[in-house]
Amino acid sequence: MPELPEVEIISRCLDRALAGARLQDVRVRHSGCLRCSDYELRAAVQGKRVDRVRRRAKLVLLELEDGALIAFHLKMTGRLLVTRQEDSELDKHTHLVFSLLDHQALLFRDVRKFGYCRVFASEAELRAWPFYAGLGPEPLELDAAEFVGLFQGRRGRIKPLLLDQTVLAGIGNIYADESLHLSGIHPETPADAIGYEGYVRLYTGLIRVLQQAIKAGGSTFSDFVDANGTAGSFQNDFLVYQRAGQPCTSCGSALERIVVTGRSSVYCPVCQQNPRAG
Ligand SMILES: [Zn+2]
């Protein structure tokens, strides 16, 4: 699933391609991806200029000239691509085709069909959407003290808390595992056993890994590409994610894989010890 860095890359890329462009129409080829009616979507986009494309959590948001917004959640395999509009190129996984001038089109494609698109008439309506209203803060907008404060008084283990979008927005399995490794924290460590300095290390590791991933164009595995079809390269820099059994880059021990609340987690048993284990 694309996480904060990948969605940030897609949003920046779409902003460059679409800011100032006018949407002519949208063709709905599979309405199952809509969390609004076909009519609402068409009425919202027809003839409207795109002012800006931005990201919030893992959502891509197209801001239109009249204040309406089109939100996309890419989930597992959703993709947004700007291409030449050639019908012959559209496969069965292309669910939405937004036509632009000059035979260009924005395509929403999703093989596994978990992704969705939804229209909001205004920023106020977007903010009133319970999912949006419940999102935690953006990690890259926090300072260390604010980050530490998010975990104060929390119960449970650190890995599921990092993945909880109501605690912190945009983090998924990749950047949770990478930041826990960078900070030397075992994924099953209870939140109240980490302490102030541990959280500052986690903050530093998380910010570093997110910034590096954005710089590298995101991580490409399965089929993530940006809106121009360019792959990212951060997958070449993974320290632990998908590296179970391989040596830790710090100490050489074999990395181990465990399942924490249903999510695969890879960590180094030497560098990342649980203070409350056993
Ligand atoms: Zn190690």
Verbal overview:
The protein is an alpha+beta fold and 278 residues long. The protein has two domains: 4-133, N-terminal domain of MutM-like DNA repair proteins, CATH 3.20.190.10; 139-267, Helicase, Ruva Protein, domain 3 (Orthogonal Bundle), CATH 1.10.8. The protein is built from eight helices and ten strands. It has a four-stranded antiparallel sheet, with helices on one face. Strands 2-3-4-8 form a four-stranded antiparallel sheet. A hairpin with a 3-residue loop joins β6 and β7. The protein is elongated, with a radius of gyration of 20 Å. The structure holds zinc ion. Zinc ion (ZN) is lined by residues 248, 250-251, 253, 268, 270-271. The site of zinc ion (ZN) has 7 residues, from loops.
Strand content: 15-25%
Can you tell me the overall shape? elongated
Name given to the CATH architecture of the largest domain: Alpha-Beta Barrel
N- and C-termini, Cα separation: 33 Å
CATH superfamily of the largest domain: MutM-like, N-terminal
- Number of H/I helices: 8
Major sheet: 4 strands, antiparallel
Q: Provide the list of bound ligands, each named once.
A: zinc ion
| Order of H and E elements | HEHEEEEEEEHHHHHHEE
Name of the CATH first level of the largest domain: Alpha Beta
Q: What's the rounded overall pLDDT mean?
A: 94
Structural class: alpha+beta
Number of strands: 10
CATH topology of the largest domain: N-terminal domain of MutM-like DNA repair proteins
Total domain modules: 2
How are the strands of the biggest sheet laid out side by side? 1-6-7-5
Question: Helix content range of the residues, please?
Answer: 25-40%
Low-pLDDT stretches:
none
Roughly how many Å is the radius of gyration? 20 Å
